[in-house]
Amino acid sequence: MAKAAAEAGQVAARIGPLDGRSVAAEGVSVTVLAPASRISLRAPQGSLPALGKALGVSLPRKPKKATEAGGRAALWFGPDEWLVIDMDGKDPVADCVSVSALHSAVDVSHRNVGLMVEGPLAEAVLSAGCPQDLSRPAFGVGACSRTVFGSAEVVIWRRSETAFHVECWRSFGDYVLTFMETAARDAAG
Fold first, then answer.
1. CA atoms 121, 124, 129, 130: torsion sign
2. What is the mean pLDDT of residues 138-166?
3. To 10 degrees, the CA torsion angle through 49, 47, 100, 107?
4. pLDDT digit string (tens) for 79-95?
5. How far apart are CA 131 and CA 120, in angstroms?
6. Residue 1 confidence class, pLDDT cut points 50, 70, 90
7. Model's pTM, two decimal places?
8. Burial of 184 (0-12, 13-18, 19+ CB in 10 A)
9. DSSP H helical segments within the chain, as ranges?
10. How many beta carbons lie within 10 A of that of residue 50, not counting itself?
11. Please, which contacts does 107-110 make with residues 24 or more away whose CB atoms are closer than 8 Å?
C-alpha cells in the first residue's frame, strides 16, 4: 500500500503517538499539541544577534527563560543551548542556514511531542510527577526548564498563570500522558 501511495505521488500523513488522546478532569485539561518544527540550537554569545534576527525570535540569555515571537519560541537550556519551537510549521533550520556566525542547529522535530496542561489545577498535576518547584513565585510565566516528570525527561514551559507547555520524547508520550491522567483525577479529588 505504501508503495502504491509513493507511486501515485502521495505523501503519507504523519501520525503522532498520542493523536486523538486528551485528558479532562475538573480543574485541568491536557491536550496533545499539533506537530511542530523543533531545533536544538548551540551557539556562543557572539552569534546570538545574527541567529535571533534570522529566526525572528530573540534567544534568551537568562537561565530558565523563554521568549516568543511570530509563532516561534526559544527556550534557554544553558549558556550556549536553546530549544527553538516553531508552532506555525515553518523550518527554523532553513532560517539558520544563512547565518555565517558559529552555531549548530539540529532538527529534533521527530523526537518530541508537545502537551498543553491547562486549568487551575495544572500546577498540581505537574507537581505530582516533577520534583522542581513549579509555584508561581519560583516558576513564573515565561519560565522553562528541562526536568523530569515521573521517570521521563521533559521540558516544562509556563505559558500563563494556569497553562504549561510540556515537551517529551515521543517514546515517553504514552507514559507521560497516562501519568498526567492519574494526577488529574487525584488533583480533582
1. positive
2. 98
3. -100
4. 999 999 999 989 999 99
5. 19
6. very low
7. 0.90
8. buried
9. 2-7, 48-55, 92-97, 122-127, 173-188
10. 17
11. 107/37, 107/38, 107/39, 108/38, 108/39, 108/40, 108/83, 109/35, 109/36, 109/37, 109/38, 109/39, 110/170
Residue from 168, 84, 170 nearest 126 by CA: 168
Closest by Cα among 165, 135, 166 to 148: 166
Which amino acid type is present at position 53? K
- C-alpha cell of 144? 522553562
Q: Is the dihedral angle over the CA atoms 130, 85, 16, 33 positive or is it negative?
A: positive
> What amino acid is encoded at 40 in this protein?
S
- Strand runs labelled E in 7-143: 22-25, 28-32, 37-42, 66-69, 72-78, 81-86, 104-107, 112-118
Rounded Cα distance between 82 and 108, Å, is 12
Q: Which domains does the chain have, with CATH numbers?
A: 21-34+110-189 (3.30.1360.120), 37-108 (3.30.70.1520)
Q: Is the pLDDT of residue 100 over 70?
A: yes
Relative to beta strand 112-118, strand 28-32 is antiparallel
CA distances from 48 to 53, 73, 82, 95, 167 (A): 8, 15, 11, 13, 24
